[in-house]
Write a structure and sequence with these properties.
Blueprint: E1 15-16, H1 17-24, H2 28-37, E2 44-46, E3 50-53, H3 55-68, H4 75-87, H5 99-117
Antiparallel strand pairs: 1-3, 2-3
């Protein structure tokens, strides 16, 4: 997910608040304010409280910006929406892992690799 105006940064690279501000067009004080209003938005903070936004944080900032701007949500509305999504399980996340099936698949792949190399 390369942002406009950031051709030299890899999609998975962390961004400072200044870089994120330039790329999104949002002032830095707005980004810091959103951190106080949206518990989901928690960039890494290093020495001197320097913020580093992960790709997931960048995606969340873009989503919040879209909800508050063009979609017309209020801050309270976005908070409720994000809280509801946090409580709702993600499809497929609650499924139990079938260890035996995974081991059988691993064995099949290992056999296929052995045959391929022979």
């Amino acid at each position: 997910m390369a942002l406009p105006g950031a051709p030299d940064k890899a999609a998975g690279a962390f961004r400072t608040i200044g870089e994120l501000s330039r790329e999104t067009g949002l002032p830095q004080h707005i980004l810091r304010y959103w951190e106080t209003r949206f518990p989901e938005l928690r960039p890494l903070q290093r020495a001197g409280n320097r913020r580093y936004y992960r790709p997931a944080d960048v995606a969340l900032v873009l989503r919040i910006s879209s909800l508050l701007g063009p979609e017309g949500y209020t801050i309270r509305g976005v908070q409720k929406l994000l809280a509801a999504e946090r409580k709702r399980p993600i499809a497929g996340a609650a499924k139990a892992v079938d260890v035996e099936a995974l081991q059988a698949l691993r064995d099949d792949l290992a056999d296929a690799l052995d045959k391929d190399q022979a």
